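During the no-cost extension, the postdoctoral fellow (Dr. R.K.) reprocessed legacy sequence entries with the updated structure-token encoder. One reprocessed record is reproduced below for audit purposes.
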Amino acid sequence: MASLLGVSVPAATAVPVAHRAPAGGYEEVFVNSSMGPIKVQIQWAARGGNAALYLLDGLRARNDRNGWSFETNALDQFRNDNLTLVMPVGGESSFYSDWYAPSNFNGQQITYKWETFLTRELPDYLATRGVSRTNNGVLGLSMGGSAALTLAGWHRDQFKFAGSLSGYLHISAPGMRSAIRVAMLDAGRYNVDSMWGPPWSPEWMRNDPFVSAEQLRGLSLYISAASGLPGVYDHPDTPISSFNTATAMGLEAISLINTRAFQVRLNTLGIPATYNFPANGTHSWAYWSAELWQARGQILNTLGAW
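Re-encoded structure tokens follow.
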């Protein structure tokens, strides 16, 4: 057993099979994958329940910690609930999908296979710790919000709940593919062609929640995007904070347009969802933390995890 910053970090392959998840507590583990060992932060269900919520990061996901674990109070929100929080670390600009090849713009050494990890390799590991393969939810912000709906739609045996906070849910809309290309270049110099191929590739359609919306029928859904107007958590008082706020305003406005279009799409298909469109709020963590709290009751009810 290794130690990371004072936290015990067991190797995933060394964990014995258990009949139920540990009752409460926090761990950081490394889970084997085709991409190499992937760090996963886990807060175990308070009373050893088998339900889990996967929390997905945004485009600038870090390699040391999942943003949900330190940018929000997610751990505190669910600490006393019978729900395991699963926070995979890494995946910058990945859209949590399986890529065609490594990015050739930044010297990437491995091919991202995040869908395989999140729907096969990680559940295999969690099953050895007592987490169900079928009683799960997935929620993400921005890039992670898009991915959450895609993963839940294509893996209905694994997920009962899916949530998108400020996600980009109409990727096939005019200008979105170019916008994603530019964003990924800015966040790590990743080549979008290595991800889903050229714009006419079928992978673009497969990973567009708007196109694959029918796959979501019967899921419990929570979908949110704010207006982009500054709100209670925005207090720019320096040139850099003003720049960051302006950027967050623009990103949230694009997300709102995408999310409203997605709402129309679901309504047209007769697929119900819980929506929240705050009058104020930018593309930033404090608002996503608040939205997670709004979704909490629905998550716990769906997974039977009170």
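Residues 1-8, 13-17 have pLDDT under 50 and may be disordered. Helices lie at 74-78, 114-127, 143-154, 176-186, 192-196, 202-206, 239-269, 285-303. The remaining legacy entries will be reprocessed before the final report is submitted.
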